[in-house]
User: What shape does this take?
Amino acid sequence: MSSLLKGTRVSATVGGKEILLETGRVARQAGGAVWIQCGGTVALVTVCEQPLDTPRDFFPLTVEYSEKMYAAGRIPGNFFRREIGRPADNETLVARLIDRPIRPLFPKGYGNEVQVLASVISADPDNLPDVLCITGASAAVCLSSTPFAGPIAGARLGRVDGRFVINPTRQELERSELNIVFAASRDAVVMVEGEARFAPEAVIIEALEWGHKAIQPLLDAQEELVRLAGKPKAPFTPKEDDPEIYAHVEKLALEAGMEDALRIPDKLERKEARKAVKTRVRDMLAADPAWAENEEAQREVGAILEHLEKKLVRRRILTEGTRMDNRDTKTVRPIEIETGVLPRAHGSVLFARGETKALVVTTLGSSTDEQRVDSLVGDETRRFMLHYNFPPFSVGEVKAPRVSRREIGHGALAERALRPIIPSPESFPYTVRVVSETVESNGSSSMAAVCGGCLSLMDAGVPISAPVAGVAMGLIKEGDEYLVLTDILGDEDALGDMDFKIAGTADGVTAVQMDIKINGLPTEVMARAMQQAKEARLHILGIMTRALPAYRESLSPYAPQHEEVYVNPEVIRMIIGPGGKNIKAITSATGASIDIDDSGRVSVFAPTQEAMRQAKEMVLYYDQHAELGKNYTAKVRRILEIGAIVELLPNLEALVHISQLDTSRVEKVEDVARLGEDMVVKVIEINGDRIRASRKAVLLEEQGVEWKPEDTARPPRADRGDRGGRRGGSRERR
Assistant: This one.
């Protein structure tokens, strides 16, 4: 083989599947590149970096994930027929899965811009690419010259028939009670994201311990690949803080009242007090001749004060057990709930927990409102959606309102939490959309979306299986001492060591998300956090139940009305009409949405009861049934020697025998019946799909003569043309 196409390859076996990692065959000009493959699924993950002209006060890492439709042998379904620039929600979510575990592993203070690109270039239905890209990203950065405290590896956990499965197939996931993506270093789990079907906390902890052991071969393979083909790491020396400047600024901040400012429980008041302290410190520096000309001291004031705030708050929590809003470590903030706040919405609730408040709204729609997604596995539909919004006014900021990655991620987490309680389409055929508008925020707004989302579903009358609540947990670690915090504030998220969100019912967990800022989290600490979260969740569920004990018995009068009717499958084409003419006429006249199944089931969604009545009537017009003894104005469709075939109703025909055409003897059918003309007839016999009618019976009644069924008994069969009328003409049915 040509050296241009030769690379270095290693492999690892995880869960009975071989995973290949290769470098050097493609993307040689990237800082690091890995071709990672499992079965027929292949991803190419690269990393590049470049210095910035202007240093930034944050690490400029960007991670992008894309799925090439050619990977599954498909052409994109959009107008452009190419992968368009804006990533799909799923691609954004996977990019976050890659970003979150690798970001803390770059050295603090590293200022070069780093870009990680992961592309799925081949996809089979059994091996999901997202977890491969987590491992591929770690391997690519480890191979590069960029400083990195890796490797880590990613995997997915399932539990099928009571047995844990690593990287389950799509078919196994359909039967699995767990679907958890995690990333881990050699020593500990560093990221968790997933959903469960009411799994006990102990099962999730056991799964993560089992999965951590199962992925060790992936870490071995990365280390071997780096040994064979890795680049030397670029030297990086973190900027050393001037201890004299730090000590002096911290002294001034304490004199200016920093500790008192941090003890103010109200978020906005505390923010203003901290800002005032910062201003006083700058003024004090400027007024001191010994420090007035020290530009570095002035420049570092913000960073030094942030460091001091973190140190003071953490010390207070560890020594006093008291947090910024004066709670202890286990208390949930006060909760208030108001349901039905929007008069025209199908379901709405205002959920407040401390200084975090969410307005959550549920909207019901028909099957035509399902979201259709173009993916590697084909067109998918979603009948339950949850969208999370975080407008800048919720935190008193001014910036362009747009849907960020964070909003997509928080919405997906809340959606996973509520999905297991959504009723099946057979019992509740509506499409359901929940929107959580964060109107005030001081931490745990995604969990407010979970609690408020559940309540808004109940307010809309959605028959959920059980209420769900969520809570965000934090962590303070100093040395070997750990403190788990319940229902964390925004500031506690920033100064703490963990953000662990857990949602579920009283019986078990439905969704988890964990990110940590330290090297790893022992499973016993994770177990403690989950147990503490369960206690908080039960407390919140109790408050929710008091506010709304059960879902509403009836839907909002503004929600779509739904009914199902059944028609003979052979009349479906008539209901639809040529080019959809008839069905369009029905929907245009009534505003209804109509979904017709091949079995003959017609699902009708209408805006009002009157529109529902009219839509059903128009649908059933094409599938009507004759009633014995009833008179019909029928149209003559065919002339036979033994009688006339008349159309009683659309697609419903009957035979009027020559003996039943008149009260007197009829020599020729044409003497009485003419094609296209109407005649009033009475249905005198229904035998399966064969119908006989009589004009004679109607004439006798008009003359005041009582009609008797025996007067119109069917004569003996004398002609092969006498087959009786039937629905749709001569075709056999049913």
Notes: DSSP finds 17 helices and 30 strands in the chain. The radius of gyration is 36 Å. Residues 714-724, 726-734 have pLDDT under 50 and may be disordered. The first strand starts at residue 8 and ends at 14.
